[in-house]
């Protein structure tokens, strides 16, 4: 998606350990107009799927997920992050190792928001090693609901997230694909 790539080129800052900072439009300050375009693009790419809900993880997945929900006219559920959880009776939970924070969080979704025939689209801001998406897939499996697709705003193709997901045979769409952040420079795939 050219609009997104242009913004990454203009405003992205490469940090150590292969982290791209895009806090001027996605991870801290949010550009609603750009996110709306992101939402419409996901809606277009998954138009042939019967989606009843969108799943994401707080906090940076929420903006693109809500805009996709708006474009697809479906509700959005964001998994909440907790350091530890003892009362998990009414929750679906999964452990997620955070690439940027280097800590493990439990993510959870209240069971009451999931219905038996739900068929969901997972949206997230970044795909690195696939741990966040894997956590949502675990929750979807536990809840016995179908995952129709995965939409990622920025994929770092040099990390192993895609390999992990494609093993599951789920449609994966990334709106910007970064093949390298070496020497502080953003290289896009193709
Ligand atoms: P994964 O679980 O795929 O290893 O990493 C995805 C999560 O880590 C995303 O939800 C995102 O919050 C964070 N993340 C991973 N790589 C980056 C990055 O390069 N920049 C930023 N801002 N967040 C990242």
UniProtKB/TrEMBL annotation:
Entry's EC annotation: 2.4.2.22
Chain positions recorded as 5-phospho-alpha-D-ribose 1-diphosphate binding sites: 128-132
GO biological process, one term: xanthine metabolic process
Chief subcellular location: cytoplasm
Binding residue positions for xanthine: 20, 27, 156
Assembly mode: Homodimer.
Alphabetized PANTHER family for the sequence: HYPOXANTHINE/GUANINE PHOSPHORIBOSYLTRANSFERASE, XANTHINE PHOSPHORIBOSYLTRANSFERASE
UniProt keyword annotations, A-Z: Cytoplasm, Glycosyltransferase, Purine salvage, Transferase
Record protein name field: Xanthine phosphoribosyltransferase
GO molecular function, one term: xanthine phosphoribosyltransferase activity
Pathway assignment: Purine metabolism; XMP biosynthesis via salvage pathway; XMP from xanthine: step 1/1
Known catalytic reactions: XMP + diphosphate = xanthine + 5-phospho-alpha-D-ribose 1-diphosphate
Entries under InterPro entries matching the protein: PRTase-like (IPR029057), PRTase_dom (IPR000836), Pur/Pyrimidine_PRTase (IPR050118), Xanthine_PRibTrfase (IPR010079)
Taxonomic source organism: Pediococcus ethanolidurans
Gene Ontology cellular component terms for the protein in this record: cytoplasm
Annotated function: Converts the preformed base xanthine, a product of nucleic acid breakdown, to xanthosine 5'-monophosphate (XMP), so it can be reused for RNA or DNA synthesis.
Subcellular location(s) per record: Cytoplasm
Family designation: Belongs to the purine/pyrimidine phosphoribosyltransferase family. Xpt subfamily.
Database matches in HAMAP family: XPRTase
Top-rank EC class of the record's enzyme: transferase
